[in-house]
UniProtKB/TrEMBL annotation:
Cleaved signal peptide residues: none
SUPFAM superfamilies hit by this protein: Periplasmic binding protein-like II
Highest taxon in the source lineage: Bacteria
Organism: Ectopseudomonas khazarica
Protein name: Substrate-binding periplasmic protein
Pfam families: SBP_bac_3
Domain Solute-binding protein family 3/N-terminal: from-to ranges: 31-244
Length: 244
């Protein structure tokens, strides 16, 4: 299966053919403020998707003159695996980790975010290092790089299929800590009616990318990367970030 799947139309009177490529499909999930559905649901397409990364990639595809379709689905593991398996697909916003490096072709960085551990605002928990978190119950998002970051360091993490479940568990005292991003965490919490959170440990700062299936032609990857860099140089990326 190839990325550029062509439909050929034969124009007999002129004696030539025209090839039309199907659009590049960019998959994502709800991760405000980077990518999210306008309606707040777990499925959206194209203009029904907004956020920093979504808007940047929309501008990148336009500048590169590449037809791109954005689709938001749930859960993250589904869209991640589909991009691994199927040519013609990409997934964002994706942390570019050492474990993932050889699994995709990359365009970015698109944006940057911080991984932190949240506790309830009235929690007495104080952490001097990640090692101090070992004695606490930690909630994370299943299949997420942040969760894997802790697992790789030998910490136990209860992984939820929906990250919003961690907010509710934290609020009810069912977990002590929640690993999330400093940007997306408070927004997710507010959507669940939870305001009283505090950061107890900063873990990492990570660049976010568009990850493309390995069968994506290098020429297309370079075209998208060049478009991204030109928009960055013009200040367009900062303008998009400022809207959120």
């Amino acid at each position: 299966m190839f990325l550029l799947r062509f439909v050929t139309i034969f124009v007999l009177s002129c004696g030539f053919s025209i090839a039309r490529a199907e659009p590049l499909v960019l998959l994502t999930e709800n991760m405000p403020p980077f990518n999210m559905s306008v309606s707040g649901t777990n499925y959206a397409r194209d203009d029904g998707i907004t956020g920093i990364s979504s808007d940047i990639l929309r501008a990148v595809c336009e500048r590169a003159e590449v037809e791109c379709q954005q689709i938001l689905r749930f859960p993250w593991q589904r869209v991640y695996q589909q991009t691994l398996d199927d040519a013609g697909y990409g997934v964002f916003s994706t942390a570019r980790t050492a474990e993932r490096e050889g699994l995709f072709k990359w365009v970015g960085p698109i944006s940057r975010y911080d991984w932190v551990l949240f506790a309830k605002g009235d929690s007495p928990i104080q952490l001097a290092s990640i090692e101090d978190a070992r004695r606490y119950r930690i909630g994370g998002y299943k299949g997420d790089a942040k969760t894997q970051f802790l697992l790789d360091r030998g910490l136990e993490v209860t992984a939820a299929l929906r990250d919003a479940e961690n907010v509710r568990k934290l609020d009810k005292g069912q977990i002590d800590l929640w690993i999330a991003s400093s940007q997306a965490g408070p927004l997710t919490a507010r959507q669940e009616g939870v305001e009283n959170l505090k950061v107890v440990q900063h873990l990492n700062s990570v660049d976010l990318y568009l990850a493309l299936n390995l069968q994506t032609p290098d020429e297309l990857v370079q075209k998208l990367q060049k478009a991204l860099e030109s928009l960055r140089a013009e200040g367009a990326l900062k303008s998009i970030e400022a809207r959120y």
